[in-house]
Design goal:
Layout: H1 2-21, E1 60-75, E2 78-85, E3 94-97, E4 101-108, E5 117-119, E6 143-149, E7 154-159, H2 164-169, E8 174-179, H3 183-186, E9 192-200, H4 215-221, E10 227-230, E11 237-240, E12 246-252, E13 259-263, E14 268-273, E15 276-284, E16 287-289, E17 294-299, E18 308-313, E19 328-335, E20 362-369, E21 382-383, E22 394-396, E23 400-408, E24 414-418, E25 424-426, E26 441-444, E27 449-456, E28 461-467, H5 470-474, E29 478-483
Parallel strand pairs: 1-4, 3-8, 9-12, 11-19, 20-23, 22-29
Antiparallel strand pairs: 1-2, 4-6, 5-7, 7-8, 9-10, 12-17, 13-16, 13-18, 14-15, 14-17, 18-19, 20-21, 23-27, 24-26, 24-28, 25-27, 28-29
Bound molecules: CU-O-CU linkage and copper (II) ion.
């Protein structure tokens, strides 16, 4: 508790300290960050290991990451030979400040080639981690250095973009938290935890599930692992002081599973989504987080000492096959013996978001389909009539604003993800859905149409879009948009090789 107070204070000093040396105008001193209210070691069971910054420059975070197979315990007596970043499940939490430069020396010690994609981060195309488009695959035993600045505060995450359904399902993912020190006062909740939701499947010998289970029918259903994980553990416990607010930064890193969080009917206050804070806060008892999405929420557990509140993932119909699924326990929240916290008035979290100009935007129609099974008994998803390995790029000029009208003509939901650019979801009249937030992944429910407003204002290159049910992506539901001039050598998407 003390440590996090000190860290907050240091964050504030960092901000104040910088301005004079840059010769900036004198700023009003920021309000003092609120002290922690949580019991000691409240987050001990879920605390993520953090990547170690070995660069002395305060504005550069420079780390090493090794991908390798490792034995991981997800529960007592439950050990899996997982694919990991640095031996952990999830990989290390990378913590940077907005505007920092991040350098990652990455080494691949897996038995297969891989890459790292920085989901949601507005990186240059050469850092986007897509083989054949932005870089070559990192072969076994080889290294690659990722180096970019991190322009937007928010919770992001990293994962491979090679055989991604298999590799993410095997355990390759981690959180990238881009902090804005101003939020210590504008959000004002000192007790914050990053929660990486996922799942994994393996047998009694600890051998990972076959990622091709059920062939192309398994692909269409979207394969889920048997064990539901929070920061790599089954049903861990978070401790809470009754009446003390907690800020949860949540990412769904599962390759197919949807999470619908409910904590015994408590109200969650949603303050942000993929690209940081949203226009204004909303409240809900059930938070849907589809694969790839992030949610920034505040919750205030209350109860008598010893009370155990349970965060569950509720049922959700994401398409045929959902009736096989159950309500799952995700996390327990245990009320400590401390006296209830005095009532705190939290600031109203708001953010001014300027949507790109809607007038004059180019409409780009996209139909997501699943044609009847072919004569070989094979299913594939298609975008405008083709799976990604037969696709040609969509085009956008630098500075062009587009409205992607994505019609889901299938009986499955598709969490739709665009690389490199945020978008604003629009309603059927092409008006922003409020409260606005910068999104990079949005669920498109079965048989509905989504309208996504995006401005391709910078960073020419070939950027992917795909369903973040990674089985669907590999089953065809993926494409690419060429922003700016065409780089001929980087246009080819390969059909997945049989494993
Ligand atoms: Cu997180 Cu191409 O995806
Ligand atoms: Cu999908």
């Amino acid at each position: 508790m003390i440590r996090s107070q000190v860290r907050r204070a240091l964050l504030l000093f960092a901000v104040i300290g910088l301005s004079p040396s840059l010769g900036a105008a004198v700023q009003a001193p920021p309000a003092i960050a609120a002290p922690s209210l949580a019991p000691a070691d409240w987050d001990a069971q879920v605390k993520l290991k953090e990547a170690v910054d070995h660069n002395p420059d305060p504005r550069i975070v420079e780390i090493d990451i090794v991908a390798r197979v490792a034995d991981v315990d997800i529960a007592p007596g439950k050990r899996v030979k997982a694919w990991t970043y640095d031996g952990g499940l999830p990989g290390p939490l990378i913590r940077v400040h907005v505007g920092d430069r991040l350098i990652v020396h990455f080494t691949n010690q897996l038995p297969q080639e891989t890459t790292i994609h920085w989901h949601g981060v507005r990186v240059p195309i050469t850092m986007d981690g897509v083989p054949g488009i932005s870089q070559d695959e990192v072969e076994q035993g080889k290294s690659f250095t990722y180096d970019f600045t991190v322009p937007d505060a928010g919770l992001y995450w990293y994962h491979p973009h090679v055989q991604s359904a298999a590799q993410v399902g095997f355990g390759l993912y981690g959180a990238l938290l881009v902090e804005d020190p101003a939020e210590a006062t504008t959000v004002g909740v000192p007790d914050e935890v990053t929660l990486v939701l996922s799942d994994i499947g393996f047998d009694d010998a600890g051998t990972l599930d076959d990622p091709d289970n059920g062939d192309s029918t398994g692909m269409v259903f979207g394969r889920e692992g048997t064990y539901v994980l929070v920061n790599g553990k089954t049903r861990p416990t978070l401790r809470a002081r009754s009446g003390a607010p907690q800020r949860w930064r949540v990412v769904n890193a599962a390759k197919s599973r949807f999470f619908v969080l409910n904590m015994d009917g408590f109200v969650f206050t949603i303050i942000g989504s993929d690209g940081g804070l949203q226009e204004s806060a909303t409240t809900t008892e059930q938070v849907l987080i589809t694969p790839g999405e992030r949610v920034d929420l505040i919750v205030t557990p209350t109860g008598a000492p010893g009370t155990e509140l349970v965060v569950r993932s509720m049922l959700h119909n994401r398409g045929y096959g959902s009736f096989f699924r159950n309500v799952e326990d995700v996390l327990a929240v245990r009320i400590s013996d401390d006296p209830p916290a005095p009532k705190v008035a939290l600031p109203k979290v708001t953010r001014t978001i300027m949507a790109p100009p809607i007038a004059g935007a180019t409409h780009v129609p996209m139909a997501l389909t699943l044609p009847p099974i072919d004569w070989k008994g094979h299913n594939e998803f298609q975008v405008n009539g083709v799976p990604f390995w037969k696709s040609t790029p969509y085009l956008a000029k630098i500075g062009e604003t587009q409205i992607w009208v994505v019609k889901n003509d299938t009986d499955w939901d598709h969490p739709f993800h665009l690389h490199g650019f945020f978008f604003i979801p629009l309603d059927e009249h092409d008006q922003p859905i409020h409260p606005m937030g910068w999104k990079d992944t949005v669920n498109i429910p079965q048989r509905t149409t989504a309208r996504l407003l995006v401005q391709f204002n910078e960073r020419p290159g070939t950027w992917m879009f795909h369903c973040h049910i990674l089985d669907h992506a590999e089953g065809g539901l993926m494409g690419h948009v060429q922003v700016g001039p065409v780089a001929a050598e980087h246009m080819h998407l390969e059909e997945p090789k049989p494993r």
